[in-house]
């Protein structure tokens, strides 16, 4: 929906109008930003098997990409530096190309069972140092490169979003079979070509086999 679909008086266009909708933030929220990774932030990262990385290209086009691995997969090189291994994917390289154009990144670390999250902002560099790559090997396979982040801001994010969403509550888990498979969704929204059930089942099985073969 375009902004023009709304009356001008209902569109926020400046910070003063925006802040006028909300009460002033409290002192603790203002003070929680840190410039380095303290002991608690480091422990959170060591526990995390999953993060999302936000990037932008030079034109401001944004992208958010999930990254996951065994617990502690992100290496803490020092209190100002993180290294994230780049594992095999679809080779679109959206995040990596964005980093070459605009090194500013945002990271959101998630720990299963934790309702609070850790946010880290910084500047990223793509690194292929063999010693670092070998230290990030899984199943005998080293990544081709790592995203090394020079940390500029660190802060814990409160639990409200996860508690509102009931993300970890099994009573709120949804049945994946109620939607088509990943490949079926892609086909429906691109070619639209009809595929019979047997062929679709074979394609889905091939994807599962690929997952097993190409995680690392």
Commentary on this structure:
- This is Pyridoxamine 5'-phosphate oxidase family protein.
- The protein has 216 residues and is an alpha+beta fold.
- The chain folds into two domains: 32-165, Electron Transport, Fmn-binding Protein, Chain A (Pnp Oxidase, Chain A, Roll); 174-214.
- 30% of the residues lie in helices and 25% in strands.
- The protein has helices spanning 15-19, 27-31, 39-47, 94-101, 130-135, 160-165, 182-189, 197-214; strands spanning 50-56, 62-68, 75-78, 81-85, 104-110, 117-127, 146-157.
- Strand 3 and strand 4 (81-85) form a beta hairpin.
- The protein is globular, with a radius of gyration of 21 Å.
- The mean pLDDT is 93.
Which keywords apply here?
216 residues; alpha+beta; Pnp Oxidase, Chain A; 2 domains; seven-stranded antiparallel β-sheet; 8 helices; globular; Pyridox_Oxase_FMN-dep; Split_barrel_FMN-bd; Pyridoxamine 5'-phosphate oxidase family protein; Pyridox_Oxase_N
């Amino acid at each position: 929906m375009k902004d023009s679909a709304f009356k001008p008086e209902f569109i926020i266009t400046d910070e003063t109008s925006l802040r006028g909708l909300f009460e002033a933030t409290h002192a603790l929220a203002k003070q929680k930003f840190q410039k380095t990774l303290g002991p608690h932030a480091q422990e959170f990262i060591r526990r995390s098997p999953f993060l999302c990385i936000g990037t932008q290209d030079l034109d401001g086009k944004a992208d958010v990409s999930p990254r996951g691995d065994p617990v502690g997969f992100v290496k803490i090189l020092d209190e100002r530096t993180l290294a994230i291994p780049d594992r095999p994917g679809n080779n679109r390289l959206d995040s990596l190309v964005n980093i070459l154009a605009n090194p500013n990144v945002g990271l959101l670390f998630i720990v299963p069972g934790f309702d609070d999250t850790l946010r880290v902002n910084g500047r990223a560099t793509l690194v292929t140092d063999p010693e670092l790559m070998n230290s990030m090997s899984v199943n005998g396979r080293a990544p081709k490169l790592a995203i090394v982040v020079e940390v500029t801001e660190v802060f814990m994010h409160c639990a409200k979003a996860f508690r509102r969403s009931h993300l970890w509550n099994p009573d709120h888990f949804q049945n994946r079979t109620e939607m088509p498979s990943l490949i079926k969704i892609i086909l429906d929204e691109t070619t639209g070509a009809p595929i019979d059930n047997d062929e679709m089942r074979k394609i889905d099985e091939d994807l599962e086999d690929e997952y097993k073969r190409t995680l690392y």
